[in-house]
Design goal:
Blueprint lengths: L10 E4 L5 H4 L15 E6 L5 H11 L6 H9 L3 E7 L4 E11 L2 E9 L8 H15 L4 E6 L4 H9 L3 E12 L2 E11 L10
Parallel strand pairs: 5-6
Antiparallel strand pairs: 1-2, 2-3, 3-4, 4-5, 6-8, 7-8
The protein binds coenzyme A.
């Protein structure tokens, strides 16, 4: 396996609530038991996934990472994971994280357009924070654009707090955009803490 140092032990997850994007609309009989949600798993990214990852990246970001950046993340051994939905047998999201010297740095977390608002990003975050804890990280850091309200909501509700600002960190159409630096303490897995 190239890249991720964690052994391939994919974790499966089932969406906990009805997701219109993936099930094609609400059930006709509202009294009927809810349809089971879509099943997905998080598995280590492989180089063979990169074209699919790039397709999602280019759909989802105005200033996407290049193929080379993704490939380098794999090759240097960052923790690179994909979300694969059982129904579609395709890459529906990915996460890239580095863990070193007691700190995890979430570098990329992306869910494809048609898989959003189903709780996958929140589950992905839980998956990545668990890995970070296993690797003895005590804190997770990440940067986010102030204009990225969806991501800010996700991270704030997952317990991240603003700890700094990186001036002119991101490219933007009218020059550069600052990044908000967010951090979250990671309690040891044994504490029984959630996320
Ligand atoms: C941000 C992103 C990863 C969220 O993915 P997602 O799978 O749709 O997120 P979830 O369904 O797990 O939502 C978790 C929470 O995030 C917040 N959220 C997600 N999308 C949101 C939106 N469009 N507007 C406001 N809040 C949003 C909500 O708090 C949500 O909880 P709720 O559904 O209980 O209200 C996704 O929009 C994405 O890939 N965006 C492009 C890439 C990106 O910006 N990544 C972050 C880089 S720092």
């Amino acid at each position: 396996m190239i890249g991720c140092r964690r052994p391939a032990a994919p974790t499966a997850a089932r969406a906990s609530r009805f997701c219109p994007h993936l099930t094609g609309g609400p059930p006709a009989n509202v009294n009927a038991l809810p349809e089971p949600g879509p099943i997905g798993l998080f598995r280590p990214m492989r180089e063979a996934d990169l074209p699919a990852v790039m397709a999602v990246e280019e759909r989802c970001y105005e200033f996407p990472w290049s193929f080379g950046v993704h490939r380098d993340c794999l090759r240097v051994g960052y923790s690179c994971w994909v979300l694969q939905l059982e129904q579609q047998q395709r890459v529906a999201g990915y996460g890239v994280m580095s863990v070193a010297a007691g700190e995890a740095h979430l570098l990329n977390l992306c869910v494809d357009l048609d898989a959003r608002r189903c709780g996958w990003a929140r589950r992905f975050l839980t998956h990545l924070t668990d890995i970070a804890r296993e690797r003895h990280a005590g804190v997770m850091l990440l940067e986010v654009r102030p204009s990225n309200q969806a991501a800010l909501q996700l991270y704030e509700t997952a317990g991240f707090s603003e700890v700094g600002l990186r001036r002119g960190y991101y490219p933007a159409h009218n020059g550069r955009e600052d990044a908000i630096l967010l951090a979250r303490d990671l309690l040891p897995l044994t504490s029984g803490a959630g996320l």
